[in-house]
Each structure stands twice: as C-alpha cells, then as structure tokens.
Amino acid sequence: MTPILEMKNIVKRFPGVLALQNAQIEVLPGEVHVLVGENGAGKSTLMKIVSGVYSLDSGELFFKGKPATFSTPKQAREAGIVTIYQELNLIPQLTVTENIFLGDELTRGPLVDWGAMNRRARELLMRLHLAIDPRTKVSTLGVAQQQMVEVAKALHERSDLIIMDEPTSALSIAEVQDLFAIIRQLKAEGVAIIYISHHLDEVFEIGDRVTVMRDGKHISTTETRELNVNRLISLMVGRDLSEQFPKERVPRGRELLRVENLTRGKALQGISFTAYAGEVLGIAGLVGAGRTELVRAIFGADLIDSGAIYIEGQRVHIGEPIDAIRCGIGLLTEDRKQQGLVLKFNVRENTSLSVLRILTGGLFTNRQREAGLAADYIKRIGIKTSSQDQLVVNLSGGNQQKVVLSKWLATKPKVLIFDEPTRGIDVGAKVEIYRLMNELAAQGVAILMISSEMPEVIGMSDRIMIIAQGRVAGILDHSEATQENILEMATGTAPVAV
Q1: Domain coordinates of the chain in residue numbers?
Q2: Is the pLDDT of residue 497 over 50?
Q3: For the segment 247-267, what is each residue's pLDDT rounded down to a tens digit?
Q4: Which residues pair with 259 in a beta bridge?
Q5: pLDDT at 338 over 90
Q6: What whole-number distance in Å separates Cα of residue 17 and Cα of residue 412?
C-alpha cells in the first residue's frame, strides 16, 4: 500500500536550536498512526511542516505518493490535510456554523445560504452527540464543546489526512468515546489520522502503529500490538521509569482544611469535606460536575452564597484570592497559560509573582533576592531553561507547569490545590510532578488534586472525593477505589457513601 504521507530525513533549525534531526514518519491510508514523545521531542514541529506552518530545511516530503511542499496552511488544506491543534483555532465572536464554514461558505446565487449551512452544521454536531444550536457563539461554549467544534470543522472539510494534536485534553470520558467512534468511522472510509497524545491508554485503544520521537529524532515505528506501556515509556524517555505513579504514602497529620456546606448557585450544593497534612485528596467527577468550581470557591476566585472554610481549625473569610494566599492556600489552575502564567514574563518574574510584597522594599523589587529565589526553584524542581531570563512562553508544557508550581511553593503553602496538574505534559514530566507532590506531602502540605485521568487519581491519591452535580457523591480510601466504583458514583448509579 502506498503511504498517504511519507517524510524522510527531515531537518529543521531555529535560532540556536536544532529542532529536528533526520526525523521521519510514514502514514498509510485508513490508519490511525499515533505520534508520541516527551515535550520538546519535535512532534509538533514535524506536524507543522506537514500542515504548511513551517518549511523544512532539508529532507523529503511525499503526499499521496508525490513530492510535496506546503508553504502555507491553506495549501495543505487544499491538498487534503487538516490539523486540529491543541490550542483551539476558533474565532470566539463567531457562531459555530460560521467557524465550521469559515472561508468555505455555501451560497445561493450572490447570497450566503445560512439555512443550508446551519442544517449541515447541525448534522455534523449530531454525529458528535453535541446537542448545541449551531447558531450559538463559540465564546459561550466550554472548552470541551469548542474542541468538538474543531472536530466538526475537520469532518466538514472531508480530508484525506487529519492531524489531531491532544484532541481529548478537555473531553469527558463519554466525549472521548464519541470521538473514538468518529475516528473509527473515518478510518473505515480510508481517511488517515495522525494522533498526538500524552495519554498512553489512548495509544493502545485507538492506534494501529506508533512512532516515537525523542530529541528531534525518530526512535522507532512499531505496531501497537507489539508494545506495552512500560516498553513505550522506555522508548519515549530513553530510560526506565520504574513506576508511572510513584506514590509514597506518609502518615496522615492534623486537619489543615475543613469545608462545611459550601454552596454557590446550582454549581455547588452543600459541599463538606476535610483535608489533612501529608495527604493527597483526589477530586474526581465528570466534566461539569463542579470540581473546578469547588476549588475556585475555596480560593476566593468565585464568591460563595453560604458555607464556611476553616484553616487549622480556625474559620477564615476568603473573599478574593489574596485572602486565600494569606491563609496559606495555593491554586495551580487548570489552564496554566491563561490563568497560571504571564507568558511574556520570564521565569524569574513568574516565580516571584506571588511573593512580590515580600521582595519589594519601598517602590522597587529587590532584584538580587528575586534572582536568588528563581535560581533556588530552578534547581530544586528541575526547571529546564536556558536561564531565568527565558520567557515562559518558550518553555515546554511540563516546564511551564514547574514554573507555576515554583510560584506557589514560594508562598510556603499549607494547602496546595492542583487542578489537572499533568494535562498536556509528557510522561517523564508527569513523574517529576508526582515526585514533587510526594515531597510536599512528606513536608506536611495538604494536597487537593483534581484529575480527569482515572489511573492518575487512583494512583496518586490517599483518598478520593467524587463530585456529582455539585454534591459530594462519596469519599473513598485508596484501598477501595476502582475505576468502576468511582464512575458509578460520578454518574449517580451508586448509593452515596461518605
């Protein structure tokens, strides 16, 4: 069978960086070809060459058996290549229909045929089990719904090759299965899929073959059935990771955080729980269950209607985030780029953001102390950066997350909340984050961890609190937590047990 895409000996340089070194990939028609590797391995750079964003410096690219060069994304789309990026590529002010048909509007005579476009958009959304009006503005949709609109847009363009970059990062379990059903249908129709993911379970569920990249180089291409998780991780990181979830259990300490009857509209309805020193309290539930709303309320980002919060047994008033920080609470937000970092600031400036009042004497920041703080955390948590003056926008996802973590560690928190701490980062960086969580727990910090990855929440938690429809559906000890009983509680099919 002639490959639909073949790339040989691809080299790509950026100023001071050799991003790709003789990289290669071969994709067959009707194949789901998974592309994996740590952050910075060159996956996205290689795909941006395919999709016309970057030009290659040397090497060969063949599409449908013929030499090809794509100077712009438009040329790649016209050839039959569509990319669904991890960073969503929608226009928020436009409707779902307008985004799907942007640049390819249906007309009737000289006029745009809105009726036909809305009907076609509705059909595409129904295929994805997305029950929204296509005339809805994208800005009003959640991240998961926007991701599915991107998929609908790709389906409309009837491509020969679809590149999906972390397409499930914001999707619920049910939405992931809907997407996989669409991928299998496309595969049956002869469409080729390049699927980039850090979720290794997805590799084995949806992939036919797997190409591994490391440090800009091709490491291997293997039939999925010939691999297992440990072998794949070893190929990706170039070393043996003894455990995916290196949890270290420490004795539970004193009560650090207690929440009583926290209520906020319909999102949170009488939530109560306690978190202790030295424990990781996992928070599980379906997308929209109220997990993020809960931690935002505790942190003062959203005002509550009623309820009480106690730190070390003392009731505290948290009306805004600065109150939470003064009480010893830190929050690593779900969206690190929009809410956790100032991307145009450097590593040093981001690290010191939460403690500027301590570093400031009079009107000016003590630059020497600020630099010392940044240097300490770069070394302590292993931030891979050329210097503390490097802009965080240029760091990998895993290292960006470490910068966010360093910002909160600088406040010396009693309670640290992680909202999807490993979303969009590679397996090696995940293990580093887990080990840092172990260190914090050993030091007596209480950790709250929201995670949509079931193996992660089971593997790293001492107890797991399940949220369903804004309420606590149950709290499980790690010894009794399984994917089945967590899902039963999350979906309301199991009796409440606290």
Answers
A1: 5-237, 255-490
A2: no
A3: 999 999 999 999 999 999 989
A4: 273, 309
A5: no
A6: 36
**In degrees rounded to 5, what are phi and psi of residue 376?**
-65, -45
Q: Distance (Å, rounded) from C-alpha 253 to C-alpha 275?
A: 10
Go through 256-288 and write b for each residue having 16 or more CB atoms within 10 A of its CB, e for each that does not. bbbbeebbbeebbbebebbbbbbbbbbbbbbbe
Cα–Cα distance measured from residue 210 to residue 222, given in angstroms and rounded to the nearest whole number: 5
Mean local confidence (pLDDT), 458-482: 92
The whole-chain average pLDDT of the chain stands at 88
Q: What is the pTM of this model?
A: 0.65
- Reported as a pLDDT band with limits 50, 70 and 90, residue 174 is confident
CATH number belonging to domain 255-490 = 3.40.50.300
pLDDT in tens, 309-326: 999 999 999 999 999 999
Q: Is the dihedral of CA 246, 249, 254, 255 positive or negative?
A: positive
pLDDT of 51-82, one tens digit each?
999 999 999 999 999 999 899 998 998 899 98
Query: What are the tens digits of pLDDT across the range 422-442?
Result: 877 777 778 888 989 999 999
Q: Selecting from 3.30.160.20, 3.40.50.300, 3.30.565.10, 1.10.579.10, what CATH number does the domain 5-237 have?
A: 3.40.50.300
Domains 5-237 and 255-490 belong to one CATH topology: yes
pLDDT confidence of 229, banded at 50, 70, 90? confident
